[in-house]
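Section 3.1: Structural characterization of target chains.
Under the original work plan, the team committed to producing a structural model for every single-chain target entering the pipeline before any wet-lab resources were allocated. The record below documents one such target. The sequence was received from the expression subgroup and is listed exactly as submitted; it comprises 380 residues.
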Amino acid sequence: MSKAVYITRFSTFFPNDPVENDDMEQYIGFVNNKSSTAKRLVLNKNGINRRYYAFDKSGNVTHTNVEMAANAVKGLTDDNFGLDQIDLLSCGTSSPDQLIPSHGQMVHGLLKGCRQTEVVSFAGTCCTGMQALKYAYLSVLSGNTKNAVSVASERLSAWMNHKYFEKESELLNQLSAKPILAFEKEFLRWMLSDGAAAVLVQDTPAAEGFSFRIDWIELTSYANEMETCMYAGGEKDKEGNLVGWTHFSETEWLEKSLFAIKQDTRILDKYIVPLGTRFIREIIAKRNFNPREVDWFLPHLSSMYFEEKIKADIRETLYDMQDEKWFINLSEIGNVASASAFCMLEELARSGKIKKGEKILLMVPESARFTYAYALITVC
């Protein structure tokens, strides 16, 4: 078994130019032919200044999810590492272009020059990128492969067109008094972003520059305890059970906005942060891990609304992690869901701020049915 596994290369791909807050509706459209009042309220809370869309102002799609993922993978290659050397392609997304074939197979099919190889796909939401990374890590750690490419990608803009929101009320009074209520559909519409990020995982460190040794990756699901929180392709019944789209008529698909992304705000605000803290406490006990040794904390935040909540919970249950240890790029790239953790790590890697021996803690919460991922990485 290999003694160590390293991330040796990073690559990101964002479509087109970044879209500023004031220009968003020029791309995703106006609901009922007027600007959304909820937009201002939600943007004020989520802290996002710009994001990326894989379509133009006329609604023409410029990049598919698969194309963005393939571009990110290609960005890992050069004269010393080519597509024909990939031993494993591990993909994660929450917004595949199609149901069948799998997203990973479609990415593989677009990588001309890539050889016949093992391909895996992970479906879900924000944790799929970390799931793809863990599969790659374990494959290299076990000696099954010498390298693996993990890529996470999203075309979430496909869900945000104004036509999907025409029948939705904005709940303006509630939004002003308690902004968490904005997280039904309007919240998602003003924060989601398109893009892709890939990493190369190898059994030896890079010949030059920094490498990032993966010390461990931990994931868990609280679906055994928690009901569904974020969902698409279904509707909750009176008991809170999620009923899938196949149980509804075609007419109801549109009437009920079954294929719009929704969040159950009754449980999101109450549980998303405490369950994440509960899991890191379990990891500390399992791994004999001292969080005070962390030099950089990279939390995937869906919105800056949660930053102070996480800080307060960590402060109350663990210790007071200094602000200078936090590294977040949500405001500049938006919420890229499964790709967000890779994007943060890539930006930190090229920031000039890191030093050998420093430890990086990644945190990715997934509200769909409360899945969490943490990873500890050492700069080498």
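Residues 213-233+262-379 form a domain with the Peroxisomal Thiolase; Chain A, domain 1 fold (CATH 3.40.47.10).
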